[in-house]
Write a structure and sequence with these properties.
The complex is a heterodimer of chains A (163) and B (249).
Chain A: H1 2-16, H2 19-35, H3 45-66, H4 68-74, H5 91-102, H6 106-117, H7 122-129, H8 133-154
Chain B: H1 2-18, H2 27-36, H3 70-78, E1 101-102, H4 105-111, E2 129-135, E3 138-146, E4 152-158, E5 169-172, E6 179-182, E7 189-194, E8 197-201, E9 214-216, E10 220-225, E11 228-233, H5 238-246
Antiparallel strand pairs in B: 1-2, 2-3, 3-4, 4-11, 5-8, 6-7, 7-10, 8-9, 10-11
The chains are: A mainly alpha (163), B alpha+beta (249).
Chain lengths: 163, 249
């Protein structure tokens, strides 16, 4: 399990933006995976597990939005900032990309998280999404297109020449 | 538009690699703690192994696919009693004999500190034969029973006193039509397994005990309760096997 706990925790953190909540969600997901192991068949384990983690995290995020006290802290549902290595990407650019991601629909954002942040292969994504491998490309491209629309509208500087 | 998407992809890759996540907490330990808590309704085992950690009995079902899949490690680590894992090992050519030292029921009970359970279904009977398999810290009693219609089945009970939550036992299932179904209501976890597969035990370090490896294609019900794992092998239906399991006293 230790082999997968990083991926599970990070997946939950991407959705919840809160380490203790992400820990709780990842724990709960592992317990649910335990109880559902009879439904696991052959194939990669990671997408199967991450689907449980993401579902658990998304449900918690929705529940959190309904709780007044936490909603106040969560404001628009995004953290004030993520910790990043600014030698790789500037703080300003990172914040804009993050806010653009948060403006996407849940399904669009999730597929981007899985592909670029959690590094799922297209084959793993196909298992996660329950669709043919060929469909993964088009769904990913569609999500990127939506992200591009958000960026054009709200953060055009990201796409400026020389950016 | 494609150029813009390419730029965004680059940003995503950079942001992902620049992300500094909080340190991952010990989720594995916390989950193990939750899973090892005995169910409130589960009766305590009659034998006591004070000072010895709850054993981890691992049962693995698997597909012969060439290489061990990551699921094996993940599940073995996570579900450290019954485990479904993939194996490259083929059961073809392996012996199907259940071996062990023939002992009396009294001797077996003595070895298990009086903890062996006997079935009340369909009626309280004594086993026709008892074998004791001794794999160091892992001891298994195999009790053979005969039903009124002449069919016989084997009940496997183990002390599983390996401690430290390490794998103790494994069962591999090849792709040749073997199936695993989850069964509810029999303790912590239970599975109904059919089809040709491999059975093997592990030592306390998680290494396969070579002399324990065998093949079987007999219907099997296996379940864990309070850290101990039980198994019924025989020409029983799923319902009959469950009835036997529920009647163990």
């Amino acid at each position: 399990m230790r082999r997968y706990q990083d991926a599970a925790f990070r997946a939950a953190y991407l959705v919840l933006h809160d380490a203790p909540e992400a820990e709780d969600a990842a724990q709960e997901a592992f317990v649910k995976a335990y109880r559902a192991i009879g439904r696991f068949r052959e194939g990669p384990f990671r997408p199967w597990l991450l689907k449980i983690v993401m579902n658990e995290s998304l449900n918690r995020a929705k529940s959190r939005k309904r709780r007044a006290a936490v909603a106040e802290r969560a404001a628009a549902g995004v953290p004030q900032t993520w910790s990043i290595d600014e030698t790789v990407i500037s703080r300003e650019r990172a914040d804009q990309v993050r806010r653009a991601l948060e403006a996407l629909k849940e399904q669009e954002r999730t597929i981007i998280y899985l592909r670029y942040f959690l590094m799922l292969s297209e084959q793993e994504l196909a298992l996660y999404l329950g669709c043919p491998a060929g469909t993964v490309k088009s769904r990913l491209h569609r999500s990127l297109g939506k992200l591009r629309d958000v960026v054009v509208e709200g953060y055009p500087g990201l796409l400026a020449e020389g950016a | 538009m494609q150029r813009e998407i390419d730029m965004l992809e680059r940003d995503l890759v950079q942001l992902a690699s620049a992300m500094a996540y909080p340190s991952t907490p010990d989720i594995a330990g916390a989950v193990r703690g939750r899973l090892s808590r005995p169910l409130p309704a589960a009766p305590a085992p009659r034998w006591s192994l004070a000072g010895v950690g709850l054993a981890a009995l691992i049962v693995a079902a698997a597909v012969v696919l060439g290489t061990a899949a990551p699921a094996r490690d993940a599940v073995a680590d996570l579900f450290h009693r019954i485990n479904i894992f993939e194996t490259a090992q083929s059961p073809v050519g392996l012996s199907r004999d259940i071996t062990g030292t023939e002992v009396s029921l009294v001797d077996a009970q003595t070895e298990f500190r009086g903890g062996l359970k006997l079935p009340d279904y369909p009626a309280r009977t004594s086993p026709e034969r008892v074998l004791l398999q001794n794999y160091g810290t892992v001891k298994v009693a195999v009790l053979f029973f005969r039903l009124p219609d002449g069919r016989t089945y084997a009940l496997f009970e183990t002390n599983t006193s390996v401690g430290k939550g390490v794998p103790a036992f494994g069962k591999g299932i090849p792709a040749s039509g073997a199936t695993v179904e989850s069964v509810s209501g029999l303790g912590d976890e239970a599975y109904w397994v059919q089809g040709l597969r491999i059975t093997q035990y592990y030592d306390a370090n998680g290494n396969v005990i070579p002399e324990s490896v065998r093949a079987t294609d007999v219907n099997t019900l296996l379940w864990s309760r309070s850290g101990f794992v039980y198994r019924i092998e025989g020409p029983l239906t799923r319902e009959e096997a469950i009835a036997v399991a529920l009647s163990l006293r």
